[in-house]
Every structure is written in C-alpha cells, then in structure tokens.
Specification:
alpha/beta; D-Maltodextrin-Binding Protein, domain 2; two-stranded parallel ribbon
C-alpha cells in the first residue's frame, strides 16, 4: 500500500489548485457560449473573424455569427438575442439605434478610429471631359446621358442596398439637392453592383458609384488615377448627422476634385457594439474589445484578396491566421490584457 505524508498530500493539492488557477486565468471565458452577429457587407468579415478568434483563445465558445441588417442587429443586441458585433459605424449608424440603446448596449474600443470614409466617385476620364465637380453636375443633360445605363434619362449611381445606413443618406441627398429626376440610385447587391462597375470601367465606360473605406473598391479603382472623389453641392446634414457636421468636409483626400472636399457623409469610427449585461459578466471580453484595433491598410489588403476570389470561410480563417502570425506580439498583448482584466 502506498503511503503519503500530510505534507506530500498538501503539496499535491497545492500544485493541483495552482494548475487549475493558471488554466482558469489563461481561459477566463471557459464554459461560456457567445452569440455574435456580423454585418451583411463582406468588407467587415475579416474584423469579425479576428475578434471571434481572440475570444476563442480566451476560452469562450463562440457560435457562428448571425448575418444581420443594421437595424435588426441593434434591436437584437438590445434584447440580448446576440451578444456583440464588430461592425458598428458611428455616427453613421446612430439614426438606426433603438431609443433604449444606451440603456442596454454600448460601444467599445475603436476597430479603426476615423476609418469610415464615405462618398461619391466618378471615373476620372469623365470628370476631366465634363468638368464634374459635384452631384449638381449630374443635372446637366450631357452628363446624365453619359452615365445613363438603362435609357431612362437618369445617370445610374451604384448605391447601397436597402437597410444600410448609407442608403438613408443617399436618399436624403437625392431629396435635398433635388436630384430625384436626374440620378437613379441602383440599390441591388453592392458587391455585384461594384463588380459590374469595375467591368464597365475596364471596357472604357463611365462609372459613378458610392463607396467607403475600408473597401477593395478604392484599391482596384485608385482615386486620382482611375476615379475621383466629388463634392456634394453644399453640406446639408440629416438630423442624425448634425452633431458631427464638421466631419463631413475633409482635407487631404487623395484623388478628390477639390481640397477640402465636401463628402456629404460623416467620417465614422468603426467600433464594437455589445450588450451591457454581457459586458458586465465578461470583463475579459470587454477588455479585448477595448484594446483591439487594426490599421486601415491591413483591412483593405484583406478586402482586396476577398475581391480577387479568396472569400470562403476557410480563406478568411487563413487570412486571420496569417495576420496573427505577422502581429504576434500585438496579438498576445491584447490577450494578456484581457486575461488580467478577468482576475
């Protein structure tokens, strides 16, 4: 029969408890299951996958994200049906928040501070040919004719699908600048619309589109070389934009027809949005949300890979692994801060 002294048993117990404690602090999310959401635009998939990977390394079981339209997500996170998403654009999304948003949900960290650049671009050849400076120039018959794809007498604009924050702003612009009779915003799938625009440009046809950064579009169609950012006639913000009116005119934009350029859209911060009850119960997740941040160039680089065909879930997971491998020290520091927050 084996005999153990009290001291030996005490040492064994201490080592076991110590190992368990180390494991718990290394995986503060152990035993908890999270339900994320994800935006419907695929240029936000990379950020979502990176955050999901970080939470998994912290021990959380993270379910497959639900792809939701903006207004549905914000209602869902308030109700607690989903825990978080990585695709908040503020103040662009402010008009889509439920009245009790601040009571039930919050914005955490900055995926990209001032990373959400938005506006209208026109093929440079036509900007030079017709001296296009603003949306007002699309009231001119020769300009409308050049950009009329379907023969309805209006210039066709590759715009945003219903439910996107940018769709509301574009509709506002059509009204306040009296453009409904002159411009036709095409609201089909944005990815398909931009693929068509890129093909048209390569065939030598005029193009006119809305876009944002981060996005592959302004890497495939380079401002200043292929396309130009144009102005809105004057800054006439929606009610939800008034608090950030000074962020609708921007200086130093490469490939703009003027400097500064009146974009007509607020330059937004990209932030994580989460349910407050979830945040209160998960200090490690909260800290990870607060410290997680990405260079805009890294997102654009990944978005371009997706546009070139690397857009399967397996491709995106590989992009995540590649990014972590190139940024190991930064990644580990985020995880360490999250673990400390849970102690």
């Amino acid at each position: 029969m084996l005999r153990f002294t009290k001291a030996a048993l005490g040492l064994t117990l201490a080592l076991t408890l110590s190992a368990g404690s180390a494991l718990a602090s290394d995986k503060p999310g152990e035993g908890k299951t999270l339900q994320p959401a994800r935006a419907t635009w695929n240029t936000g998939f990379f950020q979502e996958a990176l955050v999901r990977k970080g939470l998994e390394e912290l021990g959380y079981k993270v379910k497959k994200p639900k792809d939701l339209q903006n207004p549905i997500f914000y209602k869902s996170v308030v109700f607690g049906d989903v825990d978080y998403w990585t695709n908040g654009w503020f103040p662009n999304h402010d008009s889509q928040l439920p009245k009790n948003f601040d009571e039930k949900a919050g914005k955490y960290g900055y995926v990209v501070k001032a990373g959400g650049l938005q506006g209208y671009l026109v093929s440079k050849k036509e900007v030079d040919k017709f001296n296009i400076q603003s949306l007002d120039d699309f009231k001119r018959e020769e300009v409308k004719k050049a950009f009329d794809k379907n023969g309805d007498g209006k210039a066709d604009l590759t715009a945003c699908p219903p439910g996107w924050g940018c769709e509301n702003v574009i509709s506002h612009h059509m009204k306040v600048y009296d453009l409904d009779a002159h411009i036709n915003p095409v609201k089909a799938s944005y990815e398909a619309g931009m693929a068509s625009a890129l093909a048209a440009y390569k065939s030598g046809e005029p193009i006119f589109f809305y876009t944002w950064a981060p996005n592959w579009t302004i890497f495939k169609l380079k401002p200043g070389k292929d396309v130009m950012w144009i102005n809105v006639p004057k800054i006439m913000p929606k009610e939800s934009q008034k608090a950030a009116e000074d962020r609708m005119t921007v200086s130093g934009i490469q490939g703009a027809v003027s400097d500064p350029v009146k974009l007509g859209f607020v330059v937004s911060d990209i932030q994580i949005v989460a349910n407050k009850k979830f945040i209160a119960e998960n200090p490690a997740a909260k800290k990870f949300f607060e410290v997680f941040t990405l260079p805009l160039e890294d997102i654009n680089e990944q978005n371009t890979k997706m546009n070139e065909g690397e857009k399967s879930p397996q491709d995106i997971e590989r992009h995540v692994s590649d990014w972590i491998a190139k940024n190991t020290d930064k990644w580990n520091s985020w995880l360490d801060e999250a673990r400390k927050a849970a102690e």
